[in-house]
Amino acid sequence: MKKVLLFVALVATLGFASCTNKQAEAEKARLDSLAEVARLDSIAAAEQAIADSIAAAAADSLVETVEEAAAVK
């Protein structure tokens, strides 16, 4: 009878251990996913800042060209 109880306790312990590991892996996967989303958001923000900077520089050069053309006339 001792062996049966010991076996049941061992099986229960292994069952709890395996469930805990799956929960930890699921939590790690969720955190990795959130980190990836944050990384992609920061890349998108940097690309948008570059595009805005290029657009502003193009607009400034266009204004300068128009002003120079007006000064020549």
Description:
With 73 residues, this protein is mainly α. It has one domain. It contains one helix and no strands. The termini are far apart.
Record the SSE blueprint.
Blueprint: H1 2-72
In short:
This protein is 97% helix and 0% strand. The protein has 73 residues and is mainly α. The protein is rod-shaped.
Features:
73 residues; mainly alpha; 1 helix
Q: What proportion strand? A: under 5%
> Rg, please?
32 Å
Unreliable spans = none
Terminal-residue CA separation: 109 Å
Count of helical stretches:
1
Helix % is over 70%
Average pLDDT reading: 84
How many beta-strand segments?
Answer: 0
Return the domain count.
1
Net shape:
rod-shaped
Query: What is the H/E string?
Result: H
Query: Structural class per helix/strand content?
Result: mainly alpha
Q: Summarize the main sheet.
A: none
